[in-house]
Amino acid sequence: MATLVFDIETSAQPVDNFDEAQQDYLFREADKLADPAAKAAKREELTRFMSLWPFTSQVVCIAMLNAETGRGQSLFVADDFEESEENDTPVKFIPCADETELLAQFWEVAKKYDSVVTFNGRGFDVPFIYLRSAVLNVPITRKNWLGYRYAVEPHCDLAEQFTFYSVGGQGGAARRFNLDFYCKAFGIESPKSHGVTGMDVGALLAAGKFRDIAEYCLRDVRATVELYKIWKERLAGIK
Fold it and tell me: Which of 4, 35, 151, 182 shows its CA 20 to 30 Å from the CA of 194?
């Protein structure tokens, strides 16, 4: 059974995209503060969080690989969306005109797979793309990725597996770490080793460095594939 491993990158929409009532709602915690400096700091903090919420953000990249073959695609939104000539490479970088096209292409690929692997996909990536697809009226071809939490089919979320479903909480032996930490612990090249992190996506997007985002997202997926192989060989089946 072919297994799809994927990751997404998101970026906040401009604040001006929202009407006055929406902006009042988004920044009401900041507006309660009397001190101007504290208010400005809180607004900046809330603006950063907007990239994590599907109703205030957008998907700008989805990278995906077949876990068995290593072949795949990195789809990314770009101003110049002419497809480049990379026909002989195992991973194709495919620019898209907008988020709607990106999501439609992703779901077209996803329907060919019965199993999916993510890192924190149950808590972030999957609900995010479900909601963004619904907002943009993009048909979702796999609606069972948020099924029974304590199962690895059809969705194996490695963040759940390496914490044994959060047994013991943050103070326990299986506390959750980020992907970078797990990679270093298991001797996998960290996706952050090239000096780019998810916090840089907004700035890269503003600078028109769309391919850099796509390459960073792909590094996340490649690291997730390697971590999945380790989990499958050494830890799968533990209950």
Answer: 4
User: Positive or negative CA dihedral for 212, 215, 217, 223?
Assistant: negative
**Beta carbons within 10 angstroms of residue 100's beta carbon:** 18
Contact 77, 60 (CB under 8 A): yes
Q: What are phi and psi of 222, to 5 degrees?
A: -60, -40
The residue type at 108: E
Tens of pLDDT, residues 133-183? 999 999 999 999 999 999 999 999 999 999 999 998 888 999 999 999 999
| 56 token code pair | 């205030």
- E strands along 78-177, which residues? 91-96, 115-118, 155-157
140 phi, psi to nearest 5 deg: -95, 120
* Predicted TM-score (pTM) of this structure: 0.94
| Helix (H), strand (E) at residue 8 | strand 3-12
Place of tokens 């695609």: 73
End-to-end CA distance of the chain: 23
Instruction: Dig out the tokens for 229 from the structure.
Output: 């192989």
Express each pLDDT in 177-234 by its tens digit: 999 999 999 999 998 887 777 788 989 999 999 999 999 999 999 999 999 999 999 9
DSSP 13: P
